[in-house]
Amino acid sequence: MQTPAAFEYERATSVEGAIASLERLGPEARIIAGGHSLLPMMKLRLANPEHLIDINDLKELAYIREADGEIRIGALTRHVDLLKSELLARHFPLFRDAEHVIADPVVRNRGTIGGSLCQADPAEDLSAVCTAAKAKVVIRGVSGERVVGMEDFHVGPYMTAVGAGELLTEIRLALRPGAGSAHEKVERRAGDWAIAAASAAVWLNGVAITDAGIALSAVGLTTIHLSRADELLRGKEPSEELFQQAAEIASADCSPGADGRGPIDYKRHLAGVLTHRALRRAATRALQGEVSS
Amino acid sequence: MNVSMTINGERVSHDVEPRLLLVHYIRETVGLTGTHWGCDTSNCGACVVLIDGEPVKSCTTLAAMADGHEIRTVESLEVDGRLDPIQMGFHERHALQCGFCTPGMLMTTRALLDENPDPSDLEIRTAISGAICRCTGYKNIVSAVQWAAQYEAAAKRGA
After folding, report:
1. Between chain A and chain B, how many beta carbons pairs sit less than 8 Å apart?
2. CATH of the domain at A22
3. Which of A46, A167, B81, B86 is at a distance of 20 to 30 A from A258, taking alpha carbons?
4. Residue A253 CB contacts under 8 Å (≥ 6 apart), including other chains
5. Cα B76 from chain centroid (whole Å)
6. What is the pLDDT of residues B31-57, one digit of tens each?
7. Model confidence over A227-248: pLDDT tens digits?
8. What pLDDT score does A206 carry?
9. Given an 8 Å threshold on Cβ–Cβ distance, is B65 in contact with A105?
10. Is residue A88 part of a domain?
11. Averaged over B138-145, what is the pLDDT?
């Protein structure tokens, strides 16, 4: 039987209350939302928080809405709601691509976007999705809010910019014209972690790529942002040759380890193939008008 | 800490350790052993119960997190000796052999039919993609869900 180490439990009744508890209890306190990343880690005693603060009652953190030229997603939004959101699918279809292949429908009923991002598992899909989509996250502490870009969010394996005493509250996606995006994943069986996954977002001005974001899951110690590929694509017209060059950067710039999911050369090859496919679909979607405007 | 919840319509309340998982609370504290404890890693789906009508893996939920909520377990399906149509479907279509996965399969597919009374083959397979059966190979389980959907549709027409 897998049993977590003993801890104290409390249920937050407000965002301010959750933050106050985090501040009061110190670094051994953790937020629990869906629990589908944290509880397995606690059962394996890889995580041993002394206090859990349950935020499942904070319905004010569960939403997907459009405001001020952005899509805003509350941290407590469940995977099932990300999957079903037409607003998100219209502007950032890579979320739906990813949500179809994150765990299984029963797990998706509980797991949240905030939990996924804060767990920061290198094989986790939404970290790559948000990195590619150039998301910013809102982090709140006792002294107020700060907004951090995904490029500064991952500070190490399973480590994020969210500090002790802080709570991730919202994910923001800027709506820019000419957007297209896609997420491609290969897994051993339905619901498994990725062998490799690639997220791509492009913004076109009708002719050329004005901006691009590409990120990889499961092929390094953290989510990998392929900034070299972003730079390569910017200002160029989309083409198979260009996407192939980006794919080669993906194969070169990832750093997979060999494990039960495959050897290193296979994973590098896969990272390239998935990057190419994701870019092709992202550009096609942008051109077909699944765009934000 | 004290937890109180409704399980199959009955109010229960106990003092528990915060680390007690919902599956063990249901099986050992409350004594309803129909919910099975399988892989313990949220992969197999044997422990699925409904929380406020939604299927959830109870091995990856704390009893404390279920405090104040409504739980349904497999024991709630049969009422006064009459099987739920989903149970009848599993019987009719021979959708179990050893029966270990069955409670989770029943609750997962009961929730599917509650949300989608006429699911396609693919929708059924997707719904149970987080539930593992090592005996029948799923074909009969899919068939059982279709049987139950048809039975419920016919009952509705007849009503």
Report:
1. 78
2. 3.30.43.10
3. A46
4. A224, A226, A228, A229
5. 9
6. 999 999 999 999 999 999 999 999 999
7. 999 999 999 999 999 999 999 9
8. 86
9. no
10. yes
11. 97
Inform me whether the C-beta atom of residue A36 falls under 8 Å from chain B C-beta atoms.
yes
State how many domains chain A has: 3
Q: Which domains are present in chain B?
A: 2-76 (3.10.20.30), 85-158 (1.10.150.120)
Residues A34-43 have pLDDT tens digits of: 999 999 999 9
Tell me if B108 and A56 make a contact (CB, 8 A cut-off).
no
Cβ of residue A103 closer than 8 Å to a chain B Cβ: yes
pTM of the shown model: 0.96
Residue of A nearest to B104 (CA): A106
Q: Which residues of B touch A30 (CB under 8 A)?
A: none
Task: Give, in order, the Cα–Cα distances in Å from A109 to each of A69, A99, A129, B33.
Answer: 29, 11, 19, 24
A237 and A203 belong to one structural domain: yes
Do A86 and A157 fall within a single domain?
yes
Query: Is the Cβ of A46 closer than 8 Å to some Cβ of chain B?
Result: no
The residue in chain B having the minimum alpha-carbon distance to the alpha carbon of residue A44 is B41
And the tokens for B63? 């009893």
Closest CA to B90 of A227, B99, A275, A105: B99
Instruction: Choose the closest CB to B130 out of A5, A35, A106.
Output: A106
Residues A278 and A198 in one domain: yes
Instruction: Determine whether the interchain pair A103/B126 forms a contact, defined as Cβ–Cβ distance below 8 Å.
Output: no
Let me know whether A79 and A158 are in one domain: yes
Q: What is the domain-level CATH number for residue A270?
A: 3.30.390.50
Interface subset of A 131-150, CB within 8 angstroms of B: none
DSSP A256: -
β-pairing, B70-72 vs B2-7, is parallel
What is the mean predicted confidence (pLDDT) over A170-196? 95
* Chain B contact present for A43, CB below 8 A: yes
Provide the residue range defining the domain that includes A250: 179-287
Answer with the one of A137, A154, A174 that is the final residue of a domain.
A174
Domain for residue A2, yes or no? no
Read off the pLDDT of residues A201-221 as tens digits, 9 standing for 90 and up. Answer: 999 998 899 999 999 999 999
Tens of pLDDT, residue by residue over A26-59, are 999 999 999 999 999 999 999 999 999 999 999 9
| Model confidence at A290: pLDDT above 60 | no
3-class SS at A285?
helix
Query: Is ipTM strictly over 0.90?
Result: yes
Contact with chain A for residue B129, Cβ under 8 A: yes
Residues A68 and A156 occupy one common structural domain: yes
Hey, is the C-beta of A2 within 8 angstroms of any chain B C-beta?
yes
In a domain, A292, yes or no: no
Crossing angle of the two packed helices B139-158 and B85-92, in degrees rounded to 10: 130
Last residue of a domain, one of A174, A207, A230: A174
CATH number, domain at A148?
3.30.465.10
State the Rg of chain A over Cα: 19
| pLDDT for the residue numbered A189 | 87
